Amino acid sequence: MSKPSSKTLYQGLGIVLATALVTGNMMGSGIFMLPATLAQKSSPGAILLAWILTGAGSLLLALSFAKLGTRYPRSGGPYEFSRQAFGGFTGFLNAWLYWNGSWIGNVAVILAIASYTSSFWPALQTSHWLGFLFTSSILWIFTIINLLGVRLAGKVQTVITIFEVLLFLGFIAVASIHFNANNLLPLFPVHKGLSTTSNAASYTLWAFIGLESATVAAGEIRNPKKNVARSTIAGIAIATLLYMAINLFAMGAMNETQLANSSAPIADIMEKFLGHTVGEIITFGAIISVLGTTVGWLLSTARVAYAAGEDGVFPKIFAKVHPTFHTPYMALIIGSLLANLLLLMNYTKSLSSAFNFVTLLATLSYLPVYAFTAASEIMLAQRTQQKIKIGGFILRFAAPLLAFIYTIWAIYGSGAQTVMYGFLLMLSGVPFYLYMNRKQASFNQENTNPLADL
Predict the structure, then answer these.
(1) Residue 205, in any domain of the structure
(2) Which of 208, 199, 93, 205 minimizes the C-alpha distance to 412?
(3) Can you give the C-alpha Rg of the chain in angstroms?
(4) TM segments (predicted)?
(5) What is the pLDDT of residues 212-225, one digit of tens each?
(6) CB of 99 within 8 A of CB of 342?
């Protein structure tokens, strides 16, 4: 492979590292807490149905990302797809939402690390300044790892992802031995019937955020026309199977009341059957696992901003590439500075309330991006077709149409307040776009006007 120039990114991710990026970005803070959160909100039957619907919808979305990632193997993923399909403004909105959702999501992941660590170091919960210094240190350590090269970041996340998968397989094995089907009954009690499925699905969706990671980093994946699609499908398949097994066996190993009241359900189940020491080991394993997610999300956050910066949609500073490490170092630094500011602001609340708020806001940032990606697949495919009837249209684009409908349903299930925050976040980018669009137009005019230098 030829050495990249000082202004380009380095294709340092092979199929294994790219798959680990997708799996690791998906499997992070959420799955360690979701069994308890879901038990509070819904019934076993509705929870299992929510996992099935979310898994199916996410797989349909992954197919759209895989197809478009093969066709447009450039860093930026959903930003690039929507720009190609609908033009600059829609591309900007996708970049704006995804970038903001990513650095906000990084805060949620880092707060989860602090929450798990507080079981060993209780002062993190009681001292806001200590908590802030701890989370800031985590943020900047992994920002530096990303700055030093995509291959280093990929290797770190791959090792942690393998550790995480083994940890979950161990939990599934123990929980399956102590599985009690009576804990799942009744499947749909009167107070938590089928109507709670959409609410449960809004929480399970957080576990699937990250399915697009390979397309976002496509410019740094070797042989992207093949490996982007392969790593996307493989990554989501691994994560989905583990998610459903973890939640099913957690519900079978602990009754609904105990599960709903657990602050660390996976650790508590292991402690229940194997003792306190094993429970502490699992908690420590959770911390390590979420650290891997931090590596991957910092990587993804910077790549969308880098791609938008290259096109002049974001300020050009986002497109600066480190001459030695070939990483978008300014996009990494700016994203982490904003995350650090939000960490400071959120330490006026408890860790749990801060985590819940930023998780919901980040999730709502991604959903419109996912909807536009499914629509982009249809729009771009139609450009090569002369005539089409409604029946043929539905048959040909059944998968992206269903993916689009799924995202609308997921937005609805998130609740009116969360949708309002997401809508306000989207509108807040419009003045930024107007400024950048005007600036780019002035730049183009100066460079085409022969009298500009006179």
Answers:
(1) yes
(2) 199
(3) 22
(4) 12-34, 46-66, 96-117, 129-148, 160-181, 201-221, 233-253, 273-299, 329-348, 354-372, 393-412, 418-436
(5) 888 888 888 888 88
(6) no
| pLDDT score of 447 | 62
C-alpha angle 62/291/349, rounded to 5°?
100
Beta bridge partners of 221: 13
Q: Which of 42-56, 246-260, 436-450 has the lowest average pLDDT?
A: 436-450
Q: Which two tokens stand for residue 224?
A: 């992207």
- Contact indicator for 312, 436 with CB cutoff of 8 Å: yes
The pair of structure tokens assigned to 178 is 């102590």
Q: For residue 219, is it within any domain?
A: yes
**In b/e form, how buried is each residue of 171-189, taking b as 16+ CB within 10 angstroms?**
bbebbeeeeeeebbeeebe
Interatomic CA distance for residues 202 and 34, integer angstroms = 11
Q: Is residue 5 part of a domain?
A: no
pLDDT digits (tens, 9 = 90+) for 76-96: 888 899 999 999 899 999 999
Of 83, 53, 7, give the one whose Cα is nearest residue 322: 7
Mean pLDDT of the chain: 84
Please write the tens of the pLDDT for every residue from 347-357. 655 555 555 66
In tens, the pLDDT along 309-331 reads 988 889 999 999 998 988 999 99
Global pTM value: 0.84
Domain count along the chain: 1
CB 224 within 8 A of CB 73: yes
Among candidate residues 1, 20, 31, 15, the one with its CA nearest the CA of residue 282:
31
Residues 6+ apart with CB under 8 A from 198: 50, 409, 412, 413
Distance from C-alpha of 96 to C-alpha of 430, rounded to nearest angstrom: 9
What gap in Å lies between CA 239 and CA 247, rounded to an integer?
A: 12
- In DSSP terms, 13 is beta-bridged to 221
Q: Residue 127's domain spans which residues? A: 15-385+394-439
Nearest to 358 by CA among 265, 432, 422: 422
Question: Domain containing 400 — which CATH number?
Answer: 1.20.1740.10
Neighbours of 157 (CB within 10 A): 28
d(CA 190, CA 45): 12
Tokens of 229: 């699609």
Q: Is residue 141 part of a domain?
A: yes
365: part of which helix (H) or strand (E)? helix 351-382
